[in-house]
Design a protein that fits this description.
Number of domains: 2
Helix content: 40-55%
Largest sheet: 7 strands, parallel
Order of helices and strands: EHEEHEEHHEHEHEHEHEHEHEHEHHH
Radius of gyration: 21 Å
CATH architecture of the largest domain: 3-Layer(aba) Sandwich
Number of helices: 14
CATH class of the largest domain: Alpha Beta
Number of strands: 13
CATH topology of the largest domain: Rossmann fold
Strand content: 5-15%
Low-confidence stretches: none
Shape: globular
Length: 383
């Protein structure tokens, strides 16, 4: 592979976590790349990706190149490619910096390293992470963090957790909060004649233990006991994750049959429709590095119920209904309050989009560029 050398420093972005249907962290990576490419940042960029599709729009962007690495498409081959292929790509492109957009990075990157950390569930809640994944993270992430010139955290909460677990690295941490996706802020109108058969609460996210779904379902079952047929249904939208046995056991309970609909990945247009027609987003997660579904729902004017701690409280502020995610009674009471208090729902509908606009991907890109300049020098360098 040949690369045209320029006088501008070259930055390689590790976007190998992005698949053809990016959600969550992968979706955030795409949003950041889009925001970085919207302006001339004073650097040349090479994006390492397993597929061209999520980044096809970069083909005509000046100072941007896409390096497609299909051999890194599976977990094991990606782990190998990160250690061998990425350093080779950095050498071939004359990179002055490798930005790993997730915390697994080459042990020997052969150039300065910048690492983004999206959450610390593997340290904060190790029991909710599969053992093999946890052992892998324990082996490689601390090494990456020690080797990194700077560490970017996607929220102040994640930054605090990083500093608590790795106090010797606290001076290297920079906060680069995520932004609201542009699609969620765009006006939306219901399609005439297409309406849900029944009102519904909405959950959006991977079906895995830290999302706290067994407690949410227990609280919802209590709501059904009180409200009966008058209670909204519950829709769970997102890919299946791991360690889902407790969730499946709860879903099999007779009281929930016909009232809880489990969907997989849905296209953006369908997700926007769900945000536009649900009663509320219910997202009492135990641990999030940021909490994009909360921000997306608020941007769409959908009332939100979420956790009263960490990044979720940071993102939602006072414009959502915050609950203790460990307290089933509190979650059930919050569901009832959302149904009973029309004034509260209207306040959240009005305040949500205003707050969502405060989380801006252009600002995220500016802060990220400042980190590049702090390491390499150039535009945006800290004074």
């Amino acid at each position: 592979m040949g690369w045209a050398m320029t006088s501008r420093p070259t930055i390689v972005l590790d976007a190998l976590s992005v698949r053809a249907q990016p959600t969550g962290v992968a979706g955030a990576v795409v949003e950041l790349v889009r925001a970085l490419a919207a302006d001339d940042r004073g650097f040349d960029f090479v994006v390492a990706a397993v597929s061209k599709e999520p980044f096809a729009w970069l083909e005509d962007a000046p100072h941007w190149r896409l390096a497609v690495c299909p051999e890194a498409d599976r977990d094991l081959s990606r782990a190998w490619y990160i250690q061998r292929g990425l350093p080779a790509l950095c050498r071939a492109s004359g990179a002055g910096l490798l930005h790993s957009l997730q915390p697994v990075a080459p042990v020997r990157p052969h150039c300065p390293l910048l690492v983004t950390v999206h959450d610390l569930a593997w340290r904060e809640m190790p029991h909710v992470v599969p053992r093999s994944r946890r052992l892998y993270y324990d082996a490689v992430i601390p090494v990456a963090l020690r080797r990194a010139r700077l560490i970017l955290a996607n929220s102040a909460a994640t930054g605090r957790q990083l500093a608590a677990h790795f106090p010797q690295l606290a001076a290297r941490i920079r906060i680069t909060p995520l932004g609201t996706p542009a699609w969620a802020l765009e006006p939306w109108k219901p399609v005439p004649g297409i309406r849900p058969l029944r009102p519904f609460f909405l959950f959006v996210g991977a079906l895995e233990p830290r999302k706290n779904l067994p407690r949410l379902l227990e609280a919802y079952e209590r709501l059904l006991e009180v409200r009966g047929a008058g209670a909204p249904d519950l829709r769970l939208v997102g890919p299946s994750g791991w360690l889902t046995a407790p969730l499946m056991e709860r879903l099999a309970r007779p009281a929930l049959r016909g009232r809880v609909l489990v969907s997989g990945y849905c296209e953006r247009a369908e997700l926007r429709r769900l945000y536009g027609t649900a009663v509320a987003l219910v997202f009492p997660s135990l641990h999030e590095g940021f909490g994009l579904p909360v921000l997306e729902a608020m941007a769409c004017g959908l009332p939100v119920l979420t956790s009263d701690r960490g990044a979720l409280a940071e993102v939602a502020g006072g414009d959502a209904l915050l609950v203790d995610p460990l307290d089933v009674d509190a979650i059930a009471a919050a569901l009832e309050r959302l149904l009973a208090d029309a004034g509260l729902r209207e306040r959240f509908r009005s305040a949500g989009p205003v707050r969502a606009r405060q989380w801006d991907w252009a600002h995220t890109a500016d802060l990220t560029t400042a980190a590049y300049a702090e390491i390499l020098g150039g535009p945006g360098r800290r004074k």
